[in-house]
């Protein structure tokens, strides 16, 4: 790849003009400094260093005083972490930010992609653990609650309760990116009917990072894929509504009172995306009134969830602490592959779309 002249007006330094191909950032011809502010395995750091003799990996993950927002380092070219510095004049060589989350709503107030930085996210990294969380919860909520009560009471009932089978039920997956596709793969293997809702239903293929053998790369699993404008109509078919969509200005509060009211009696809502997608008072009312069977909530509008939150008290609500995707297994592979691509001048995986904000 042609070395980047940092004094050239198209270099992206100073005015940070976006390169002709924003997914293939030019790099400098001298040594490259990569700042690591995300937990990865020690052997992965050595794999990174082995990619190029002039690659300097600076690991700050154990530095409790480090604040990426105030970073000033004239040599750093790549950051693997949660955010870029607020003042980019202190990092004139910075080209690329690889965030460790699938969502980038935490950057929305000051988007680094609007300053000429390439930002890539961790789509696909958390798809497997989050989908396993969803699958496990779907199985759990269809098991008789009496089992736990009987065990606690040391009671053996004369008549065992009837099982509610998952097979044949309908899962509506709102958001059909990497996570939604793996949820679809796992739930369809249980015999569930899948309907997907996404902002661009015509875009069936998924080019994001994916663990081989997982997901739905060609979008063939759902019975149909509808646009978000059809969400109320599609919600009427859901036995389980699973939320996996990103939080943007357009999706904030998208699961409003109308969507909640459209869900059939006895339906469940599972949210593994962002709490602000949901009109929480409308969901609370539906649960109090018994119109819905229950909810599985891993995310909330306010986190950490306050001790006096009403969500703790509902017997038909399962609360978990935004933990459905906690794993170290796959982020390392994305980092190594994207750094390899960066060094080779190839397009990176998972670029954030500046227009869509995710």
Question: How many β-strand stretches?
Answer: 12
> Quick one: overall form?
elongated
Strand content: 5-15%
What does the oligomeric state look like here? single chain
What share of residues is helical? 10-25%
- What is the typical, i.e. mean, pLDDT? 91
Order of helices and strands: EHEEEEHHEHEEHEHEHEEH
- Major β-sheet strand ordering: 8-7-6-9-10-11-12
What are the key terms here?
358 residues, seven-stranded parallel β-sheet, five-stranded parallel β-sheet, 8 helices, 21% helix, 15% strand, disordered N terminus
SSE blueprint and pairings:
Elements: E1 32-36, H1 42-49, E2 55-59, E3 76-81, E4 96-99, E5 118-120, H2 127-141, H3 146-152, E6 170-174, H4 178-189, E7 193-198, E8 224-227, H5 231-235, E9 240-243, H6 257-262, E10 268-271, H7 280-288, E11 294-297, E12 317-319, H8 331-344
Parallel strand pairs: 1-2, 1-3, 3-4, 4-5, 6-7, 6-9, 7-8, 9-10, 10-11, 11-12
How would you concisely characterize the structure shown here?
Helix content is 21%, strand content 15%. The chain is an alpha/beta fold.
Describe the structure.
With 358 residues, the chain is α/β, with parallel strands linked by helices. Helix content is 21%, strand content 15%. It has 8 helices and 12 strands. A 7-stranded parallel beta sheet has the order 8-7-6-9-10-11-12. A 5-stranded parallel beta sheet has the order 2-1-3-4-5, with helices on one face. Helix 2 crosses helix 4. The chain is elongated.
């Amino acid at each position: 790849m042609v070395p980047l002249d940092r004094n050239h007006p198209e270099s992206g330094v100073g005015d940070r003009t976006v390169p002709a191909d924003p997914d293939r950032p030019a790099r400098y011809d001298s040594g490259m400094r990569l700042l690591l502010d995300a937990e990865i395995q020690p052997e992965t750091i050595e794999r990174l260093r082995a990619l190029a003799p002039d690659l300097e990996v600076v690991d700050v993950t154990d530095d409790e005083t480090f604040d990426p927002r105030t970073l000033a380092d004239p040599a750093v070219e790549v950051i693997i972490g949660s955010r870029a510095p607020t003042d980019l004049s202190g990092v004139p060589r910075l080209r690329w930010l690889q965030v460790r989350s699938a969502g980038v709503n935490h950057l929305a107030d000051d988007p680094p992609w609007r300053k000429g930085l390439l930002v890539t996210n961790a789509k696909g990294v958390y798809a497997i653990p989050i989908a396993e969380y969803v699958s496990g919860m779907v199985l759990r909520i269809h098991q008789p609650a009496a089992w736990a009560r009987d065990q606690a009471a040391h009671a053996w009932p004369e008549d065992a309760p009837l099982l509610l089978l998952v097979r044949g039920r309908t899962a509506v997956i709102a958001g059909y990116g990497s996570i939604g596709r793996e949820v679809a793969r796992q739930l369809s293997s249980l015999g569930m009917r899948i309907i997907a809702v996404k902002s661009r239903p015509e875009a069936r293929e998924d080019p994001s990072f994916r663990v081989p053998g997982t997901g739905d790369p060609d979008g063939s699993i759902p019975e149909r894929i509808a646009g978000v404008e059809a969400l109320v109509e599609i919600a009427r078919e859901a036995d389980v509504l699973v939320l996996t969509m990103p939080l943007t200005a357009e999706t904030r509060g998208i699961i409003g009172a109308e969507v909640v009211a459209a869900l059939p009696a006895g339906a469940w809502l599972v949210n593994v995306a962002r709490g602000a997608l949901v009109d929480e008072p409308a969901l609370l009312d539906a649960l109090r009134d018994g119109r819905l069977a229950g909810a599985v909530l891993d995310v909330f509008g306010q986190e950490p969830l306050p001790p006096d939150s009403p969500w703790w008290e509902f017997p038909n609500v399962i609360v978990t602490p935004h933990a459905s995707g906690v794993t170290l297994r796959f982020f390392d592979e994305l980092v190594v592959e994207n750094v390899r691509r960066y060094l080779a001048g190839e397009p990176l995986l998972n670029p954030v779309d500046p227009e869509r904000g995710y």
